[in-house]
């Protein structure tokens, strides 16, 4: 059960959910309080939460449980450095280095501790007061150790800038004449580590927790004569407001509306189906409401009568119209039905017959 909680804590740590990781490691420790790995891993989670004192306490407990656990010394050393306890940090790191002499991280951190300790000692040196008597001053000077102190390493003249594209962030470290052998760059899921270690100079560190996640396998760098160009492949196409995590909100790219519209698939069901019955009714209504004049109006009047008549009325209208050569139009079949109808209408009457 404790191992399962620890595995979940590791997953939370990878997802940058450090609070959750601390809680899960604490539950695992409650079930198995003698596991040094649980304390060392919780120390790392505390470190990410900037709770350096708690990180040192957990690292000490891990060392107590397992004196050969190198990561416990490493985490104690890094946390003590954040607390500016450089002597304590150096002691822990040297012990870890003696257990794992091939791990270069210990040497680099020890060198940084030495540098910080030297700077603190220089700050403690007070100048000799000029108001002392000459004899006293002379004796004091004679008693002083005039051996020149070793010069502190010169600080590297490096600075960095960055710019970004939708798919990548380009970090440029301006450093002239740096050999590739003196540059060590590592990529993590959300970590960039740049170390420039030139003999005789203070090592340059650029180790930010990045604003967004990257794809380590697609990241690359190039050491040039005046700079180091680092290309970070973004895992998500978002705009980083800063290089480091927690210094601005996520900015999503603006969607290209025109391209989205042009690429949108057209489905047959998306087209409106025309209601032909409704359209025909509208046309008929327009024809009915249309105001005509002269022969057109008269012809429309006769057509309306004919279309609304029964069969006898239509036969009467046709027979009377034909027999009268277009001068009589009767609707009474009983009146005209007994009269003889010419077999062939006069010339010109067929057109008028069909106009009825």
Automatic annotation (TrEMBL):
<dbReference type="InterPro" id="IPR007699">
    <property type="entry name" value="SGS_dom"/>
</dbReference>
<dbReference type="InterPro" id="IPR019734">
    <property type="entry name" value="TPR_rpt"/>
</dbReference>
<dbReference type="InterPro" id="IPR044563">
    <property type="entry name" value="Sgt1-like"/>
</dbReference>
<dbReference type="Pfam" id="PF05002">
    <property type="entry name" value="SGS"/>
</dbReference>
<keyword id="KW-0802">TPR repeat</keyword>
<dbReference type="InterPro" id="IPR011990">
    <property type="entry name" value="TPR-like_helical_dom_sf"/>
</dbReference>
<dbReference type="InterPro" id="IPR007052">
    <property type="entry name" value="CS_dom"/>
</dbReference>
<feature type="domain" description="SGS">
    <location>
        <begin position="266"/>
        <end position="356"/>
    </location>
</feature>
<comment type="similarity">
    <text>Belongs to the SGT1 family.</text>
</comment>
<dbReference type="InterPro" id="IPR008978">
    <property type="entry name" value="HSP20-like_chaperone"/>
</dbReference>
<feature type="repeat" description="TPR">
    <location>
        <begin position="36"/>
        <end position="69"/>
    </location>
</feature>
<feature type="repeat" description="TPR">
    <location>
        <begin position="2"/>
        <end position="35"/>
    </location>
</feature>
<dbReference type="Pfam" id="PF04969">
    <property type="entry name" value="CS"/>
</dbReference>
<feature type="domain" description="CS">
    <location>
        <begin position="155"/>
        <end position="244"/>
    </location>
</feature>
<protein>
    <submittedName>
        <fullName>Protein SGT1 homolog A isoform X1</fullName>
    </submittedName>
</protein>
<dbReference type="Pfam" id="PF13181">
    <property type="entry name" value="TPR_8"/>
</dbReference>
């Amino acid at each position: 059960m404790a191992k399962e909680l620890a595995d979940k804590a590791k997953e939370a740590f990878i997802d940058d959910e450090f609070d959750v990781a601390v809680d899960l490691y604490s539950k695992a420790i409650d079930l198995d309080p003698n596991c040094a790995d649980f304390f060392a891993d919780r120390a790392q989670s505390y470190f990410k939460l900037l709770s350096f004192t708690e990180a040192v306490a957990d690292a000490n407990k891990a060392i107590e449980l397992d004196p050969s656990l190198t990561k416990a010394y490493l985490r104690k050393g890094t946390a003590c450095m954040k607390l500016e306890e450089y002597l304590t940090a150096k002691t822990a790191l040297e012990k870890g280095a003696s257990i794992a002499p091939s791990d270069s991280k210990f040497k680099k951190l020890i060198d940084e501790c030495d540098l910080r300790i030297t700077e603190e000692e220089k700050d403690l040196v007070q100048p000799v007061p000029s108001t002392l008597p000459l004899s006293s001053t002379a004796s004091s000077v004679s008693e002083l150790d005039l051996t020149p102190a070793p010069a502190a390493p010169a600080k590297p003249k490096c600075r960095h800038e960055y710019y970004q594209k939708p798919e990548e962030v380009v970090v440029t470290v301006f450093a002239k004449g740096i050999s590739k052998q003196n540059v060590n760059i590592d990529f993590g899921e959300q970590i960039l580590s740049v170390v420039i270690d030139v003999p005789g100079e203070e090592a340059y560190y650029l180790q930010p927790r990045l604003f967004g996640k990257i794809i380590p396998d697609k990241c690359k760098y190039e050491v040039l004569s005046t700079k180091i160009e680092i290309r970070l492949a973004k895992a998500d196409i978002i705009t980083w407001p800063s290089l480091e995590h927690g210094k601005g909100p996520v900015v999503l790219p603006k969607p290209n509306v025109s391209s989205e519209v042009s690429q949108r698939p057209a489905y047959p069901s998306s087209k409106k189906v025309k209601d032909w019955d409704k359209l025909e009714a509208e046309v008929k209504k327009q024809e009915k409401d249309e105001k005509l004049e002269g022969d057109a109006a008269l012809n429309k009047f006769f057509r309306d009568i004919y279309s609304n008549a029964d069969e006898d009325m239509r036969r009467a209208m046709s027979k009377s119209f034909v027999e009268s050569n277009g001068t009589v139009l009767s609707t009474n079949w009983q009146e005209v039905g007994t009269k003889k109808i010419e077999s062939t209408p006069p010339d010109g009457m067929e057109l008028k017959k069909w106009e009825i």
